[in-house]
């Protein structure tokens, strides 16, 4: 029970990695605020946690809208009385995010709004609450696309900037006992990845499972895509006291992709 007595807010918790993180945190004793734009998915995860004997609440929220982010944090504190852990997982991929000369301002703005402004709003409103509770942890979900040469300029820019913002937050709030770290997943088997493959007319074949769809010619060291639970385990470590001297760190969970 590595998160016994802690309260965690997880954005993007209705699906994929966010869902796996919310469930893992609950298993380890945390009360979880499940935040997502997707109400049915978010309510399902909330019920799954309650069925397992945990405590959870769903708050519907578009993370890119400031008032909704602020209200989601306020609702969490109202419901649970505290906040110790923030996970910024909600993110989008847009198939129109391609060669920069054809990339529309609308696509650029939307991707940056969800993937970067959302985490900004949640850090802005959640960190003061975490400080009030004596400290805690921020875990931001970036991507190998933020570390390497992505073929998606808006997505890569959003994920690279998220790493820089996390380091700044770690620097600003270390003295307040708030640690902030980043996970950079490689190809992980989630609905988002299914949509990327569908958009390219590809299937999750044996050959593809060894490759990042964002960089089809690059092989992984571990010859398969990752599971959401493998990311959740690292997110648990970073949120827990096991990582008490780790901040401003970047953890690739990518089968070795970013080292190639
Ligand atoms: N799957 C991968 O291969 C992969 C690799 C690297 C990084 N990532 C990142 O991991 C994170 C989770 O991705 P996933 O693969 O689990 O995706 P997913 O699509 O399964 O889950 C993302 C969740 O975010 C929610 N969401 C989207 N826009 C939102 C908004 N505006 N407000 C609130 N919620 C919103 C969705 O409803 C969904 O529940 C994302 O930030 C993604 O960029 C994914």
Classified in CATH, the superfamily is NAD(P)-binding Rossmann-like Domain
Weakly predicted, low-confidence segments: 205-217
Whole-number radius of gyration? 17 Å
Distance between the termini: 36 Å
* Residue-averaged pLDDT: 94
**Can you give the helix content as a percent range?**
40-55%
Which strands sit side by side, in order, in the main sheet? 3-2-1-4-5-6-9
Largest sheet: 7 strands, parallel
Strand-pairing-aware structural class: alpha/beta
How large is the share of residues in beta strands?
15-25%
Q: How many DSSP-defined strands? A: 9
Order of helices and strands: EHEHEHEHEHEHEEHE
The gross shape turns out to be globular
Ligand list: nicotinamide-adenine-dinucleotide
Q: Would you tell me which CATH topology applies?
A: Rossmann fold
CATH architecture heading = 3-Layer(aba) Sandwich
Oligomer: single chain
Count every helix, treating DSSP H or I runs of 4 or more residues as helices: 7
| CATH class type | Alpha Beta
How many domains is the backbone divided into?
A: 1
């Amino acid at each position: 029970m590595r998160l016994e007595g802690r309260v965690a807010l997880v954005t993007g918790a209705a699906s994929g990695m966010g869902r796996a993180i919310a469930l893992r945190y609950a298993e380890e004793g945390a009360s979880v605020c499940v935040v997502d734009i997707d109400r049915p998915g978010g309510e399902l995860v909330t019920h799954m946690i309650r069925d397992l004997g945990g405590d959870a609440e769903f708050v519907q929220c578009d993370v890119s809208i400031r008032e909704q982010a602020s209200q989601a944090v306020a609702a969490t504190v109202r419901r649970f009385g505290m906040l110790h852990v923030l996970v910024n997982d909600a993110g989008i991929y847009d198939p129109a995010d391609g060669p920069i000369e054809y990339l529309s301002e609308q696509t650029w703005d939307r991707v940056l709004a969800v993937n970067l402004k959302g985490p900004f709003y949640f850090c802005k409103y959640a960190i003061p609450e975490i400080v009030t509770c004596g400290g805690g942890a921020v875990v931001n979900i970036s991507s190998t696309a933020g570390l390497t040469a992505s073929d998606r300029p808006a997505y890569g820019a959003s994920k690279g900037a998220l790493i820089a913002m996390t380091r700044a937050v770690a620097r600003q709030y270390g003295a307040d006992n708030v640690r902030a770290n980043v996970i950079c997943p490689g190809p992980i088997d989630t609905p988002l990845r299914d949509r990327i493959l569908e958009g390219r007319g590809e299937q999750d074949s044996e050959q593809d499972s060894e490759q990042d769809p964002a960089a089809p010619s690059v092989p992984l060291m571990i010859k398969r895509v990752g599971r959401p639970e493998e990311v959740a385990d690292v997110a648990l470590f970073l949120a827990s006291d096991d990582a008490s001297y780790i901040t401003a760190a970047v953890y690739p969970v990518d089968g070795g992709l970013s080292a190639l």
